[in-house]
Amino acid sequence: MNLVFSWDWLPRLSQGLLLTLELTALSMALGAVLGLVLAVLRVYGRGPLYPAYLLASGYVHLFRGTPLLVQLMTIYFGLPTVGVRFSPFVAGILALTLNTAAYQAEYFRGAIQSVRAGQMQAALALGLSRLQAIRYVVLPQALRLVIPPWSNELIYMVKGSAVVYLIGVAELMGQAKTIAARTFRNFEVYIVVALFYLALIFVLTLLLRWAERRTHVPGLGMPGRV
Amino acid sequence: MLLRVEDLHKRYGKEEVLKGVSFSLDKGETKVIIGPSGTGKSTLLRCINRLTEPDRGRIWLEDVEITSPKVNINRIRAQIGFVFQDFNLFTHLTALDNVRLGLIRVKRMSKKEATARAMEELARVGLADKANAYPAELSGGQQQRVSIARALAMEPKLILFDEPTSALDPELIGEVLAVMEDLAQSGMTMLVVTHEMGFARTVADEIIFMEKGVIVEQGPPEQLFRNPKHPRTAEFLRRITDLYGGER
Description:
The structure holds 2 protein chains of 2 kinds. Chain A starts with 9 loop residues before the first helix and ends in a 12-residue tail after the last helix. In chain A, helix 2 packs across helix 4 (88-113). Chain A is 74% helix and 0% strand. Chain A has helices spanning 10-44, 50-64, 68-78, 88-113, 117-126, 130-145, 147-160, 172-183, 186-214. The longest helix of chain A is centred in the first third of the chain and has 35 residues, at 10-44. By secondary structure, chain A is mainly alpha-helical. By secondary structure, chain B is of the alpha/beta class. Classes of the chains: A mainly alpha, B alpha/beta.
């Protein structure tokens, strides 16, 4: 067997890598905002907020219960039927965001619920409003606790973002497809692409571990690594 | 009269925890609530700042009815300190930030003002040198003292103590009781649930004995300890003396 690699692939693959990074970063960030709101509603949505709780729960079930691919196709190919049209990039971001938000909501919810109930009680007893207590006491702790599961989601999304090549977004996977089709070097191209993903995820993992150490406070999370 | 509680009722499912509790507290007074576990002492304290909503009955702080649905409960709570059995210091904040949080977010003080005020209170409980320590880096006794400083910093009209020494190792109880005794002597109004009979005896202006959701008897410590009027009080005092070895 004779493997042939070419430096000519590099510009395309780098472009693809950049786009993958962009897709992941944008959808993770937007998904975090939406996920956080969903999680807070799922945990604290009682009384007058109960309808919001139901809505948030319904959302999470819907988007965790259907394949990302189906969501993407519905948005890009389905919505034009009712007159809503997005560019491939926007449709991709939208699908990835809506999908990851549901997963992130569950990670955030778990983290919020693992903050001891006494923390909220103490905050309320001081005279903080419930919203202030969430903002200044519960979330700062929950966000630290959520870093490890959130890292998982980030890694998943780096790879999961590859599905948008199917609607013509030229991210890493899309570029690989193009190169492979032109050169017939399928094996080599995909090996290189795999290495690109591997390297990207390795760097992101290091970054998150650094963030985890940076924000660590004694007595909160990271058992055994105090 | 600083605090007035009238006919307070609370039920959890089938169990009626408070069955009509009434009492009052004057400014500068320290009252200690004693009684067997599970008789509603903690529930009573938590109803007073409405961390638990009472089912029936009314509570006044000075001339404001706390139990009125129209009242802004956050503003009431800012005037009532609460010291928890398991401290509940904010895990992610240093001792200083624990004390400052309410000052900055509730009292809207500037950071500089809040820092000065917080350091004052930390010094008062003997922990100025631990200002930058996280709760996990402090002993239980130190954590409880920080939580007292956190309550004090808000300049409350009244502090509620919910078994403040029950989670502490025996050798750490003294330092917390000493701080509380100082407070009582400085004229702070305090309502304390505790099993520390020595403290009750020496510091309280009045003892309230509660059992099964009602106040069985109340009176000055000397009278209640020496001549309890009610046989249930006598029985409880005998049992707790056996258990805790009398006065501390």
